[in-house]
Amino acid sequence: MSGIVVLISGRGSNLRSIVEAGLPVAAVIANQADAAGLTFARGRGVPTEVLEHRAFDSREAFDEALAAVVDRHAPRLVALAGFMRVLTAPFVVRYAGRLMNIHPSLLPAFPGLHTHTAALAAGVKVHGATVHFVTPELDRGPIVIQAAVPVLPGDDADRLAARVLAQEHVIYPRAIEWFLAGRLAVSGGTVTVTGRREAQLVFAPAVAA
Ligand code: GRF
Known about the structure:
This protein is α/β, with parallel strands linked by helices. The chain has six helices and ten strands. It is globular and about 45 Å long.
């Protein structure tokens, strides 16, 4: 087993942060042929594959085909980076313990979509992002690292999203580095980093987004 396979659907800014951190990306797989992240990957000489979910009759059939493509690269880790498909339980179980996701909220708050709008509507004063291992229950797996940012007066969803995204680019490469170094231990649903003591929280104070 070698590097990481990154699954994307769109922009690919998290993918970029992973590649620019020098992490070994074996392949990028997108379910949308026009995902901008594919252009970035090709420009960096990273192998890419497109598997369009629309070509499949069911979620199960797509996930089976996806697993076959992923397995061709024999990755140590499968990293979801803005992959906008809910994965079936068989797929998630197949990669148990080596499937990670980044979610734009401080889980378990605000699972699902439109997290920044939901955070603003709830009036929270701290928001952020979470890297977690994926389990069959959506956005509920063991938390590896979180980044917290303030919600500032006058924020709209876009400003808040930008502030969170900047921190996503800090925490996702860090989580992957820990994983590849064999430093993540999961016990009873809780993740700890072994070896040198390192914070599993980044707090980004109130500077302009
Ligand atoms: C990020 O906000 C990520 O947390 C969420 O989808 C977005 C993907 O952005 N899962 P990008 O494609 O990595 O730029």
